[in-house]
Design goal:
heterotrimer, A mainly alpha (179), B mainly alpha (110), C mainly alpha (319), A: 179 residues, mainly alpha, Four Helix Bundle (Hemerythrin (Met), subunit A), 0% strand, globular, B: 110 residues, Helix Hairpins
Chain lengths: 179, 110, 319
């Protein structure tokens, strides 16, 4: 452990930092661009990059689930929402509220505080990536042995969300909804 | 790998999401920023799970739960946003003031 | 596995990606020509119109590549690539023959394949939105709704096979395969193949690109090579869905003399299924968008769930 230095990074470290920069850049563009659909597409880049980071951390199963659910469904739903709320082509002037300076200050303060804290706390911690920790078999074992009850609770929650979404979006003719 | 890399990336990603939630005006964009924050938390969970070599894979299982939860959140959130758009013709969150408290002078007149 | 080996495998995947979709395209021309008595595709080049595909390629290459004035140019240009690349990536994980005759063995290969396939829908959405055309936008919305609906039966029926084999790795599933899996997983196989056909927006599930209703859906504004890329994506999709169905439900390389001729069996099964996809286009009228949704939620999902229950029961009983 002590023989490893911050100044002699391994290949994984280099790839992680490079992909991390891509993720971060895409995330920043996602929250600053004035073109609504571009924001969703930058979100795709950020979340896809995160899946690569999971792969680098040997969490293979989580990485593919991330691609399956986030890129395949969540972002598609978001694009759907943007299109149905009439996202224009080209910049929208009203994408940001007047809070930008305050938001920037809060975000920068939080980032400074947390980065200092995290670096100070985990300066000497190394992740051992030689043996995979997160193949489908390992995660499945834990999921259905240790975490069965939360898993079942989650399925009830998903069902509730499904029904809730249907009820909310149903057109009520009596209430005067104009479709 | 140094644990600081994923941890710092998660922190920065979270703060980018935080900025987005506070600064964005379009409700769908706010939902996107929330997704960024959730993703940052997921990265943290996975990184620490791998670091700790947790035998029950708590961090990764929780990440799976988080992914499922965010899918549910997006489903419900978008349903609400679309309903608001249908009823009000706008998704700018600072124009949706129907439920706020009346201003002080108004209260005196009532 | 050294670098040269990896390089060869990737080259082989690229070659398969470039050749197989074209073969399917050629087959579609000929099969449709025979079934419908079309004379057009039977002329070019003389014997049986063998040069029809070449002529099509030349035609697409010659056409001007226009971008609408109001379009979001960058996204408009990026969309065809995003529609095509997922299929290329998926081919990496599909096993062709026994004993490592696969470009890359992935531990969670099944999840990988389905996850990457799901990304392709972004290409259609981007194309439809960036075209600045209301028919394109309508088509993109229909595409997205259809693909989201059929993703669920696709996943459920694939999960049934994974449950039967006790692994998510595609070569692992084939190693565990027994002949009686075909009747056992028949319902799941039908659901998977049908849902796959709907994911490709092939007739009878082609409401999102119905020419009589919304011109050509998300691809209305495309011309020239970019349009050809979307067509290529469709044919590559046929290859991928057929190959996946063959691997998951028809035993892939299993068959007589599978040790030496395993790859041939995979290709034959894939070819036969591709023929079925083409046949469906000729045989069935188009479903309406609402009928497509109803079919997914009231037929395919319940059948897939029943198959999942059946698989679970038999697994528990025989374990």
């Amino acid at each position: 452990m002590t023989s490893r230095e911050l100044l002699s990074p391994s290949g994984q470290d280099v790839v992680f930092v490079l992909v991390g920069l891509v993720v971060l850049g895409a995330a920043v563009l996602c929250v600053t661009t004035r073109q609504l659909v571009h924001a969703a597409l930058w979100l795709v880049v950020a979340l896809g990059g995160l899946a690569v980071q999971y792969l680098l951390l040997t969490a293979e199963f989580v990485a593919w689930v991330q691609v399956l659910i986030y890129l395949g469904s969540v972002v598609v739903l978001l694009l759907f929402g943007l299109m149905l709320t009439k996202a224009p082509i080209g910049p929208s002037p009203d994408a940001d509220s007047g809070n930008r300076p305050v938001a920037l200050a809060v975000a920068l303060a939080a980032a400074a505080l947390l980065v200092t804290l995290v670096i100070d706390a985990f300066r000497t911690a190394w992740i051992d990536l030689d043996t995979p920790h997160g193949t489908a078999e390992q995660v499945g074992d834990s999921l259905f042995r240790t975490w069965v009850l939360p898993f079942e609770a989650l399925s009830v929650l998903l069902l509730a969300a499904l029904i809730g979404a249907i009820v909310v979006s149903r057109v009520r003719s009596r209430a005067g909804g104009d479709r | 790998m140094h644990l600081v890399y994923p941890a710092v990336l998660a922190v920065l990603l979270f703060c980018v999401g935080l900025y987005g939630v506070l600064a964005r005006r379009n409700a769908v964009l706010v939902l996107m920023s929330v997704e960024l924050m959730l993703a940052a938390v997921s990265l943290n969970l996975v990184a620490f799970d791998v670091w700790l070599r947790d035998a029950t894979h708590a961090g990764q299982v929780f990440t799976l739960f988080l992914i499922a939860l965010s899918a549910a959140e997006i489903g419900i959130g978008l349903a609400i946003v679309l309903l608001v758009h249908r009823a009000r013709g706008t998704v700018a969150i600072d124009e949706l003031r129907a439920l706020r408290e009346p201003r002080a002078p108004q209260r005196e007149t009532e | 596995m050294d670098v040269v080996d990896v390089l060869w495998r990737l080259l082989a995947v690229l070659a398969a990606f470039l050749v197989l979709p074209l073969l399917v395209g050629q087959a579609e021309h000929k099969v449709m020509a025979h079934m419908q008595g079309r004379v057009g595709p039977m002329h070019a080049g003389g014997f049986h119109g063998w040069a029809q595909l070449v002529a099509d390629g030349v035609k697409f290459a010659q056409k001007e590549d226009t971008v609408p004035a109001e379009a979001d140019r960058r996204i408009f240009r990026l969309a065809p690539a995003l529609a095509l690349v997922p299929y290329l990536v998926v081919l990496v994980a599909i096993p062709v023959g026994p004993d490592g005759f696969v470009a890359q063995t992935l531990d969670a290969g099944l999840v990988f394949v389905l996850a990457v396939l799901g990304v392709g829908v972004l290409g259609s959405l981007m194309a439809g939105w960036a075209s600045a055309n209301k028919y394109a936008l309508l088509g993109a919305l229909r595409t997205a709704a259809q693909l989201m609906a059929y993703e669920l039966p696709l996943l459920l029926s694939a999960a049934s096979v994974a449950m039967a084999a006790g692994t998510l790795s595609l070569p692992g599933i084939l190693d565990a395969f027994e002949w009686w899996w075909i009747p056992w997983q028949l319902a799941g196989g039908l659901v998977f193949f049908t849902a796959g056909m709907a994911e490709l927006q092939r007739p009878p599930f082609d409401a999102p690109i119905a020419p009589e209703e919304i011109i050509f859906g998300a691809y209305t504004e495309y011309s020239g090579l970019r349009f050809a890329l979307f067509l290529l994506a469709e044919y590559a999709g046929i290859v991928v869905v057929s190959a996946l169905t063959a691997v998951l439900f028809l035993g892939g390389w299993h068959g007589p003399a599978s040790d030496s001729l395993g790859w041939l069996w995979t290709l034959l099964k894939t070819g036969a299924l591709s023929f079925l996809v083409i046949w469906a286009r000729v045989a069935w009228p188009r479903l309406r968008a609402d009928q497509i949704q109803r079919f997914a939620w009231t037929v395919l999902v319940p059948v897939a769930l029943a198959q999942l229950a059946l698989t679970g029961i038999i697994r528990v009983v025989t374990a």
